[in-house]
Design goal:
Layout lengths: L3 H24 L2 H13 L6 H15 L1 H16 L1 H6 L4 H19 L31 H9 L1
Helix pairs in contact: 1-4, 2-3, 2-6
Length: 151
């Protein structure tokens, strides 16, 4: 049997999360969230708005919009209070850190961030999403590829 206190915690948490998903997540711009996260991780860098928008669109499509909305939700849970925090993942920080590593890797390998001497002053260029293969069981046959192109 569910106690009254447990029922109230669950009901309030569910109501808060539903409200956040329905109103809050739609109000967040994915571009703003990803841009703010990149600036927090890397500091100041110069990238045109169009290129940032393109990167955010490409990244959110590749990463998965539902997973991205879940990350945005996890980041907003402290605002909902401890009841909502207990209803979500036990270790949400681990999920967010994994997301941040993927975002940072995608940004660095897809831009000229490492080629400029000072990203805060020199503009960097987005070259298209270029996420390396992360499959540890992938087999690459470079000799066969080079033989086809050289012949």
């Amino acid at each position: 049997m569910l106690s009254r206190r447990a029922f109230l915690k669950t009901a309030l948490g569910t109501l808060g999360l539903t409200g956040l998903v329905g109103v809050g997540v739609s109000a967040f711009a994915v571009e703003g969230f990803l841009g703010a996260r990149l600036h927090r991780l890397l500091g100041v860098f110069t990238l045109t708005d169009a290129q940032m928008k393109k990167f955010c669109s490409d990244f959110s499509r590749d990463y998965g919009r539902r997973k991205l909305y879940a990350i945005m939700l996890i980041e907003q849970v402290p605002a909902l209070g401890p009841v909502a925090g207990g209803l979500l993942l036990r270790r949400p920080r681990v999920v967010v850190e994994k997301f941040e590593r993927k975002l940072l890797t995608a940004f660095i390998v897809s831009t000229s961030y490492l080629q400029v001497s000072d990203p805060a002053v020199e503009p960097i260029e987005y070259r298209g999403l270029n996420i390396p293969c992360s499959n540890p069981f992938a087999r690459f046959d470079f000799d066969a590829v080079s033989a086809r192109h050289s012949g």
